[in-house]
Every structure is written in C-alpha cells, then in structure tokens.
Batch of 4 targets.
Target 1
Amino acid sequence: MLIECIPNLSEGRRTDVVARMAEVVGHVAGVRLLDFSFDASHNRSVFTLVGGPAAVEQAVLALFERAVADIDLRTHRGEHPRLGAVDVVPLVPIDGVSMADCVALAKQLGASVAERFKIPVYSYEEAASDPGRKNLEDIRRGEFEGLSAKMAEARWAPDFGPPAPHPTAGASVIGARMPLIAYNINLATDRLDVARKIAAAIRHSSGGYRFVKAMGVKLEERGLAQVSMNLTNYEKTPIFRVFETVKREAARYGVAVLESEIVGLVPSAALVDAAAFYLQLERFTPDQVLEKRLRSPSNES
C-alpha cells in the first residue's frame, strides 16, 4: 500500500529549519522521502514522501511537531499565500489504496493534529465536508492574518480542533486528491501586473483552463515576476499548452518568458507529452522511450 503525501510548510529561508524537517521524515520507518525543495521568495518548502497509511501518518505528525516548534507565522512573510505553519497536506493514492482510503486517512490525521497540537484543521478536495470547502484557495483566502475574523463566522468553523487559530501555527488544511504538477513560469520583467493579468487569463476560476490554478507573484530577490500554477490534470491541460498560452499572453505586453520550473516531482508522461509536442514527432508512442521499454515484461518465451 503506497500513499504519496506532499506537505507544504511555511518556511523556505532558514535552511537549517528545512533540513531538520526533512530529517524527522527520514527517521520514520516505512516512509521514503522522495524529494524536498524550498524557495526564499515564496518562503515555503514542499516535501514529497511515500509510504503506507500508518507510516505516512507518523511522518506527518512528526512534521507538525517540528513545524510548531520552529515556525511562527506572526513574523512570517512570503509571496505564497498561507494560513498555517503546516499549510496544506494532500494525500494521493498511488498503489494498493483507493481515494476513499486517502479520505479516511485525511480525516484521521485532521483529528490527531487537532487533538495533539491544538491546531484547527480544515478538510479539502475529496475529503471536504461540503462543496464550499473543496477548493484550497477558498479556505486559505484571508490567510493567517485574517484567520481569526474568518473563523468567527459559523460557516468557517474548522472540521477538527479549536474554534480559533493556533497563536503561532495558524490552521492547517488536510485532504485527498489526484496528482497535480506545481509549475511556475518566470517572466523577463519585474512587472507584477503583467503576471497577475496572465494568471487571470489562464486560471479556471476566472475563465481560463479547467485544470489550472494560477496566481501572479514577484520574486523580489531576482527582480522577476512569476506566474505560479498548479496543474490539476496534466492529461486534459498539458504543460506545453499552458506554457504556450503564457508565452502568447506575455507577448501582448511586450514581455518574454525567461524560464520555467517544476516544484517537486512530475509524472514522466507529462514530460513525454511536452517532448512529443515540441519535437513534432510523427507516429510517436510512449513505448519508444527506452526506460519504459526496459521496465516492460518481455514478450520473448
């Protein structure tokens, strides 16, 4: 049984703190830390780990313990929206588990986090308690600074835990979803207004692609504007389509694309699709990828 878990934590500047969080995950038996990355502009770190349900739960609770000790949102500043020290914990079914299993684990984790750390927890995506809490951006709107006022409204009572934010760790969002790709495109400009206009043009909530969530941010230390995205279904809205659209939209404002980046891990099929598109490969199939063929069972007797 394998579940992928991608905790997002509100720390991306103090490398020693991020290293300690990675270390606690590495000490949990039955969990493999596949990747972790951190970004100073966003002031955020993203961990990707896999394991069985019990081991994943233990690893997430260990991350919460470390984050509560090391992160104080009262002094936290960064480009990425956040409402918690451990901001969001998505669970993704990989092998031998169903989405229902991940939903059950998300709710179990929410109850455990609330009880152990006195942190309010919201359930989202497939674990959402009602349709108004399915989308992460709706739950996170107002961020940590607006959380006390938001939670005073009855409709924003948490699914688990106290009715007010933790004083330093805020609140957390835990849920279950299908795989997504965290994808950013950096523009060759510092114009935040251009990045925001492009994000509005491509994201689903404002009339863009169905499986794109996007926002415009500024990378202060590099003097660049960025279109930061989550691609929630790379098969129906592939990376190359998003890249080409951003490039065309940027050109309308006289701006070029400087580079793009993938945060965390990405399914190989998404990159193969991009290669096939840009190389204009004729009659190409994924079976022509050497590594894929090597992993396939032999047809020889």
Target 2
Amino acid sequence: MFVGLGRLVISIPGARSLKDRRRVVKSLKDRIRAKLPVSVAEVGDLERYQVATLGIAIVSNDSARCSEVLDAAARMAGGARDAVLADVATEIIPLGSGGSGVRGGIEQALGRLDAPDRPWNDSDDDE
C-alpha cells in the first residue's frame, strides 16, 4: 500500500478579496476531485488573498499510480484560468503489502504487534 501526498501552492494574482480567492480555490478543488480519485483540502495561507496552499492525498496499491495521479493534479492546477501554479511538492510513502507497515490501530488492539513479520491471518482468530 502506498500513500501519495502532494502540496500545491497557487498564486491568484487577480484576487482582491477573500471572496475572489475562495471562488478560484473552490473551483480548482472541485475540478480536481471530479476528475481524480483524491482527497483535496486547503491547508495553508488561509487569510492571504493571492496565495493558497492545497494538500492532496491518494492511497493506492501501486506507487506509480500515486505518482501519476499527483502529477495529473499538478497539471490541472497549472492549467487553471485564474491561478498560477507557484510550487509543487510530492511524497510517496510505502506502508508494506496490504498496509502491513501501518502500526497501531486494529493490529495493536488485537495484540498482533509482537510479531511484525507475521502476515495477517484471519485463522488466528480461532485460537
């Protein structure tokens, strides 16, 4: 399992108010969500009229797919009418086969952290 994360910083030179800015940001977020299987959130520069920072996340079983989708999101932001893509940063985090690298959560609740190399096995529930 892989988690792809992206940060897009966009400049909105025509924004003269927060209302102008929100219109551009909302439009871009909606277009990205409609075309790509990602989560998008505004994560920074919330009060600046002419700058916005968006965070993007995708989960996939293929790191190449994560990279492909993050690149597509950056291209969409770069092609926005009222905004200029100022910065892009991406990272892909591997979490092991089937998410076996994730610690805590259900594994911890079931006491399965003591054997990290042991594959998940539902037959253990019968013991």
Target 3
Amino acid sequence: MSQMTADMTIGSTPAPLAGQSRQYSTFYVGDLFFGIEVLQVQEVLRYLEMTRVPSAPEVIEGLINLRGQIVTAVDMRRRLGLPKRPEGQLPMNMVIRSEDGAVSLLVDEIGDVLDVAPDCFESVPDNLPAEQRELIAGIYKLDGRLLLVLDAERALQTQMQN
C-alpha cells in the first residue's frame, strides 16, 4: 500500500491530521486490540439477550431491544474470521452509530478510551489475513502493542450479505 498523506481519508475513517491527537474507544476480539473513534460510539453495555433472525447472514448474532430501539448485533469474531467465543464467555455490546442507525458490535472485552498521537499512525500491514485487513483503516504503534483502527462502516457492509 502506498504512503498516505495526512489529509487523506481511509475508508470511512479519516486519517489523523498533523498535530491532532485522536480518541479511540478500545476493545478486544480474541487477542486483537481494536479502536473505534469515540464519536462513533453510542454506548457500551454488558451482554443483552438477543432474538435470532431466521435466514440472517452468519455474522448477525440477532437483534437486541435497547430501550425500545431494535438494534442489530454483529458478532465481530465471525466478521473477522476468528474461532467462536469460548463456551460460557458472554460478549460485550459496543453500540455504534452507523449510516443506518445504531448497531451493536459483539466484542470479547471493552478497553479504555485512548488518546493517540498522529505520528504513530501507519497503513494497514500486508501480513494481516485478508478478512481482517479489509476492516482496518490503519494502525497505531503503541507501547508494546498495535491498536487496529476499525473501519466501522466496512465492518457492517456484509451484514446484509450471505
């Protein structure tokens, strides 16, 4: 992938502008550490009971009732091509705002909100599996780990495909 300039947009997540730090709500799916821009996050919730949707794509875990609002729940493990969640481990809900309204991303664990410096931002590495690479807008190199910036709109695009 070619070097990107500071004012380019990557997917639906703009690349950081020089000198501006960004805030990301973080979460884990398996051993992958993800971030999504704080402004895209509506709320974070413990596991909620879901209603299965017949004939829905396999990445759709079901529908949740969020104070009267029906919200689609997308299993990020399935979306990323990872093994199923261990038996007895309940997912957490990261409810995000999308073009089509609120959607819940089912994740393994919720992290903190992080401020990251723009000079740590890099393009997506080629060594990630394709199903993961297509959902990542870029990475931040942090102390001892990589923060994968989730392109939320791309992650939700396949929810209506089989």
Target 4
Amino acid sequence: MNTSKNLNKESPRSPRSPLGGYALMARMIDKGCADLGGNVGEYHFACPLDQMLFEFKGVKADDVKKLLGSGATDEQVVTWFNSHGTSKTSEEIQQWSKGVEAYRPYDNPEKKEWFSGECAKLGLKPEKTTLVEFLEADDAASFKN
C-alpha cells in the first residue's frame, strides 16, 4: 500500500522519476495519495501535468483516484495503467516520456508569458528551461529549510 506523503512538508517525487517507464507516474501517485489523505498542500491531483499522462494512456482521473484509494502499490498502479486505456508499447512509453522531459512551455505561445514569469521567480532562464526542470526547482524552493 502507498504511504501518503505529506505534501505540506515535502515535495512529491520528481516528474522524471520513472515508474514502469512512465515519466510523471510517481509524482501523480504521490499527489493523488496525498489528496486522498488530506495532505496535498499546494499541489493538485489531476492537474494539467497529470492529464498529460491520463490522456496518453486514455484513462480517467476518477478511475485512477479510485485505484489509489484502494491502497494500490506503485507496481499495482503501473500494472493497472498497462492494462487499461489505450495500449502502448514500451517504445511508445519511452518516446512519450522523453517528450515530456524535453517539453519547454516557453516554446508554446499560449504558455510563454506565464512560464517566463514563473521562471523569473526562481532565477531560471525560461527559454532554456524544461517544464520538468522548472518543477524540480520549484519543489526545491518550496521546501528549503
């Protein structure tokens, strides 16, 4: 069973901590379990980042939340993802995960201004920063002692 992290006191796992080859999976699990446990803090389950994973696999956030609520382990969540939604090969999962890790919101005209502002708060160069790098820096800044 997943032990819910208290996201008021620590960050979820990095978006690049792969589970079953999926980027975002470990972070999504941490946020979902913390949400169920009432310890989600400033984080959000089923945020646009989580939705990228759900859309890639063709699953619904409510179904994933039920699975997490059942106390499923990380391995059980990966098994469930692999057997639900749209079938994906390990190569497709790997390619998608690489794309997630390389994604730069600065390159998206709809997100450029927002991302530039968020990066400025952390002293990052938005034109060179991936979303994953931003999230890791933001997590680190949020939980400095």
